[in-house]
Design goal:
A six-stranded mixed β-sheet has the order 7-6-1-3-2-8. Strands 11-10-9-14-13-12 form a six-stranded antiparallel β-sheet, with helices on both faces. The protein has 304 residues and is α+β, with helices and mostly antiparallel strands. A hairpin with a 6-residue loop joins strand 10 and strand 11. The protein has nine helices and 14 strands. The longest helix has 16 residues.
Length: 304
């Protein structure tokens, strides 16, 4: 068993998130990295004053044979704003600063690798501490498993983040080492459709200058879409995820169903070959998709 410590804003949501990661034995809310001159165990009320130097932190105990430190760190960066100083969501103060604290020096190179990759992707220095753990105190019992005890309680993370985490892990497990790309797409479309209850979920596969309908779940859809046409063709041409709050307002939208109100399309990359397909998802609800959907659906497409 190994431990790593994540300060990701309010510890209620961070603890709940890491409790759902396969291979994590426990996630415990607490306070880390207080002022050197602070004596004794801090209370929540003391930490809340922002005078103690402590950050709300979650101690994650995990089985390295099941989940790697690299994956845990990557998931951590998926749930924080790494460019925000002393603020996550609506929570403001030094107690809500972000950081990763390690107690094994051998973990540092792995964490530095993840930090460098995130910094390169964002093109800006990160506002995320990376330090050896100095001190950690468990928080009061009322803060442990807070969202399990209070399902409607406050959380700075979008609630569907927890659904996407479970979906992402289940897709990875079910795909395994299956080599057939169509089988992988079929399984993925079925899981997303079943878990997220979207109106239409499917893949369009690149065939020459067109996208051809692949495995999908939902009502009948367009068989072929030309390069650059509609939302799917645009995502292919521009090699980026396209989120459409209102399909009627999207220039050149191809209406496969009058019930579709909003849409997200995510490219699927095949290494040096470039984009090999796109994942297309429709909802009957306007503005159903945002950056959270784009992040997690992009991670799922990366599994393909």
């Amino acid at each position: 068993m190994k431990e790593i410590y994540f300060a990701g804003g309010c510890f209620w949501g961070t603890e709940h998130f890491f409790s759902g990661v396969d291979g994590v034995e426990s996630a415990v809310s607490g306070y880390a990295q207080g002022r050197p001159d602070f004596v004794g165990r801090p209370s929540y009320e003391q930490v809340y004053t922002d005078t103690t130097g402590f950050a709300e932190t979650v101690k994650v105990s995990y089985r390295p044979e099941t989940v790697s430190l690299k994956l845990l760190a990557e998931l951590f960066f998926d749930i924080i704003d790494p460019l925000s100083l002393n603020r996550q969501g609506h929570d403001i103060g030094t107690r809500y600063r972000t950081g990763v604290y390690y107690d094994d020096p051998a973990d540092l190179p792995v964490l530095q690798e993840v930090y460098s990759a995130v910094e390169a992707r964002l093109g800006q220095p990160l506002e995320v501490e990376l330090e050896a753990l100095r001190v950690f105190f468990e928080a009061e019992d009322r803060h442990q498993k807070y969202l399990d005890k209070n399902p409607d309680g406050y959380c700075h993370l979008p609630l569907r983040t927890f659904k996407y985490l479970r979906l992402y892990q289940d897709v990875a497990a079910l795909l395994g080492d299956e080599p057939d790309s169509v089988a992988r797409m079929a399984e993925t479309a079925a899981l997303i459709y079943e878990r997220m209850k979207f109106f239409w979920v499917g893949f369009y596969i690149v065939r020459g200058s067109e996208l051809v309908l692949g495995p999908f779940q939902g009502p009948p859809a367009c068989l072929r879409i030309a390069y650059g046409r509609g939302v799917c063709g645009t995502a292919w041409k521009e090699a980026r995820t396209v989120v459409v709050p209102d399909v009627e307002a999207f220039p050149g939208h191809i209406a496969c169903s009058s019930l579709s109100r909003s849409e997200i399309v995510v490219p699927v990359l095949a290494g040096a070959e470039g984009i090999c397909a796109v994942l297309d998802i429709d909802s009957t609800i306007p503005s159903a998709f945002d950056s959270t959907d784009a992040l997690w659906l992009g991670k799922i497409c990366a599994l393909l």
